[in-house]
Design brief:
Layout (H helix, E strand, L loop, with lengths): L3 E7 L4 H7 L17 E7 L2 H13 L17 E3 L1 H12 L16 H20 L3 E7 L1
Antiparallel strand pairs: 1-2, 1-4, 3-4
Helix pairs in contact: 3-4
Length: about 140
């Protein structure tokens, strides 16, 4: 067990769950009204400070997707806007991700992921520019 984190681009919220939970989905079906697979643009394994940054963002956005006031930020999709991505980029460049700990989170890995974090920012901006939505999700 451990902290697994994903970022993906899709046409709308819920696409990842809808795609992977649809047992009748046929990948060869060209019907454009059916949801296609989200495209993963980043994956992190135990990047706790990024998780803390995303959890803080989720809190600032009013905890979308939470079913109760006590729900933890685990397995909840959060949409990232252009401004969110720019703020993340600034915090990465300034070594300003919040120190975050958790039983399954591992140790600080900001330096290890620095280049891939910046690559994610670049790809996320490209996808947003093309009209897609960018989401972050995690599981621990």
């Amino acid at each position: 067990m451990g902290l697994d984190q994903y970022a993906y681009a899709a046409a709308r919220a819920g696409a990842q769950a809808e795609y992977y939970n649809d047992e009748n989905y046929d990948k060869d079906d060209a019907d454009p009204t059916k949801i296609g697979p989200p495209r993963e643009i980043a994956y992190w394994r135990k990047h706790p400070n990024l998780q803390g940054w995303m959890e803080r963002l989720w809190e600032e956005k009013g905890r979308p997707g939470a079913e109760s006031d006590t729900e933890t930020f685990n397995g909840i999709e959060v949409e990232l806007t252009w401004t969110d991505i720019e703020n993340l980029e600034e915090d990465i460049l300034n070594d300003n991700l919040p120190g975050t700990t958790g039983f399954f989170f591992g140790d600080d890995s900001d330096e290890y992921y620095r280049e891939s974090d910046l690559e994610f920012v670049k790809q996320a901006k490209a996808d947003l520019f093309l009209g897609l939505k960018v989401y972050y999700n995690s599981s621990w």
